[in-house]
Task: inverse folding
C-alpha cells in the first residue's frame, strides 16, 4: 500500500511505499486531489503509482520526438474509416489483468495502434477499456481503476486528438460511483460515451439495481458501447467463472454474453423505455440474433417496442468475422444497413484475423458498395452528431 503525504508549505504531494518514494508531477497531484474529493483514495492501491506514471508520461509526450514515422501520425487522405471497437491496454492495467476471456492481454503501443489504423485506412479510433472489475466485490478498488483508466485514456487521446476519441469506463455495479465517474469523464475529460460490460460482477445490464444509473445516462443522451465479459455466478465462496469450458471464454462465451445482456435489457424494459439512449452492440450482436424471436414470443404487447428499439437505437459493430454469414441473420430482422458500424477489436484480435475480417466486409454479398462505405464512416457520423470531430 502506498501512503499519500502532503509536503508542508508547498502543497505538493508524494507517494511513499516502504523505502520507495514517488515525487508527484502536478498532473498526478491533481488526479489524487480530485479523486479524494470524490471519495476515491487512490493511495490505497499498488497499481496507482504505475498508473500515475503512465498518465504523466502521456501528458508530457511529444510526438515529434517519439520516433514514430510522420506518415503514421497523420491520417492518410483515404483513411476515412472510424473504428468504434478498439481497445487501449495501458501497461499498468495489463499487469493487473494479464488475461481476459481466457486469452493473454495483448501488449499495446501507440505506434502499433497507428500502424494498424494505417493498414485498414482508419482515420479515427474510439478507444475503450470497459472492464473495471478486477477485484470482485471491492467497491473502492473498482472506483479507483475506473478513475485511473479514464484519466489514462484521456491523456492518450490528447496526444493525437485528431486520431482518437474514447468511451468512459464506469464503476458498475456501484451506481453512485458510476454516475459520478461517467459524468466527470464526459464533461471534464471529453469522453464521447460510456463503455459497459455485459455483466458487472455477475449482474446483467437490465438488473433493477442499475435502473438509476441508466436514468442518469438517459439524461445525458449517452451513447452506450457494450462489450462482452466473462460470465460469473454466485457461490457460497463468492463469484466464480460460470460455464467453464476447455476453450477460451472469448471464443466460447462472449457471444452468448451479448445475447444474455441485451435480452435482459429488453425483458426489463430498459431498452425500450429509455428512448434517448443509443447502444452499440458488438460483433453484430453475437448470438443475440438467433434468439430474439424466441425470447419475445408471448409478449405481443412488447414485441413492437423491443423491435423498434433494435431498429432505431441500436447500432451493430462489425468486430470479428461477422460479415461472412452472421450479417445475414441481422438483416433478416429488417434492421437497416444504415445502423451498421465498423469495429476492429484491435489489439485483442490480431492482424492475422483483422485482415480476413476486413476482407469479409469488402466481399460481403449482403451489402452494396455504398452501404459498405457508409458503414465505415457516414453511419458513425450520424450516431455521434459531431461529438468525435468529424
Result:
Amino acid at each position: 500500500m502506498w501512503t499519500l503525504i502532503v509536503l508542508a508549505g508547498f502543497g505538493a504531494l508524494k507517494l511513499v511505499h516502504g523505502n520507495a518514494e514517488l515525487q508527484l508531477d502536478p498532473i498526478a497531484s491533481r488526479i489524487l486531489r480530485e479523486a479524494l474529493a470524490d471519495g476515491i483514495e487512490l493511495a490505497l492501491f499498488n497499481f496507482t503509482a504505475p498508473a500515475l506514471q503512465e498518465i504523466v508520461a502521456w501528458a508530457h509526450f511529444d510526438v515529434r520526438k517519439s520516433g514514430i514515422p510522420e506518415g503514421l501520425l497523420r491520417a492518410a487522405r483515404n483513411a476515412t474509416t472510424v473504428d468504434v471497437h478498439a481497445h487501449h491496454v495501458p501497461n499498468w492495467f495489463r499487469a493487473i489483468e494479464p488475461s481476459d476471456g481466457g486469452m493473454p492481454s495483448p501488449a499495446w503501443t501507440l505506434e502499433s495502434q497507428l500502424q494498424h489504423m494505417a493498414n485498414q485506412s482508419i482515420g479515427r479510433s474510439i478507444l475503450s477499456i470497459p472492464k473495471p472489475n478486477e477485484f470482485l466485490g471491492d467497491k473502492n478498488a473498482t472506483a479507483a481503476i475506473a478513475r485511473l483508466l479514464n484519466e489514462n485514456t484521456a491523456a492518450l487521446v490528447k496526444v493525437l486528438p485528431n486520431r482518437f476519441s474514447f468511451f468512459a469506463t464506469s464503476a458498475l455495479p456501484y451506481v453512485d460511483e458510476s454516475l459520478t465517474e461517467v459524468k466527470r469523464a464526459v464533461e471534464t475529460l471529453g469522453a464521447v460515451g460510456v463503455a459497459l460490460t455485459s455483466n458487472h460482477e455477475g449482474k446483467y445490464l437490465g438488473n433493477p439495481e442499475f435502473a438509476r444509473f441508466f436514468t442518469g445516462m438517459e439524461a445525458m443522451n449517452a451513447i452506450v458501447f457494450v462489450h462482452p465479459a466473462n460470465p460469473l455466478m454466485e457461490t457460497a465462496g463468492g463469484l466464480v467463472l460460470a460455464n467453464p469450458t476447455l476453450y477460451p471464454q472469448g471464443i466460447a462465451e462472449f457471444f452468448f454474453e451479448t445475447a444474455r445482456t441485451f435480452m435482459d435489457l429488453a425483458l426489463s424494459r430498459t431498452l425500450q423505455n429509455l428512448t434517448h439512449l443509443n447502444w452499440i452492440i458488438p460483433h453484430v450482436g453475437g448470438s443475440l440474433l438467433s434468439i430474439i424471436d424466441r425470447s419475445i414470443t408471448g409478449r405481443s404487447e412488447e414485441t413492437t417496442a423491443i423491435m423498434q428499439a433494435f431498429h432505431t437505437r441500436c447500432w451493430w459493430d462489425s468486430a470479428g468475422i461477422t460479415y461472412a454469414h452472421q450479417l445475414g441473420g441481422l438483416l433478416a430482422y429488417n434492421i437497416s444497413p444504415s445502423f451498421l458500424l465498423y469495429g476492429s477489436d484491435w489489439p485483442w484480435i490480431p492482424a492475422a484475423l483483422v485482415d480476413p475480417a476486413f476482407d469479409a466486409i469488402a466481399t460481403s454479398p449482403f451489402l452494396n458498395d455504398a452501404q459498405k462505405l457508409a458503414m465505415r464512416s457516414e453511419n458513425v457520423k450520424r450516431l455521434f452528431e459531431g461529438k468525435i470531430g468529424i
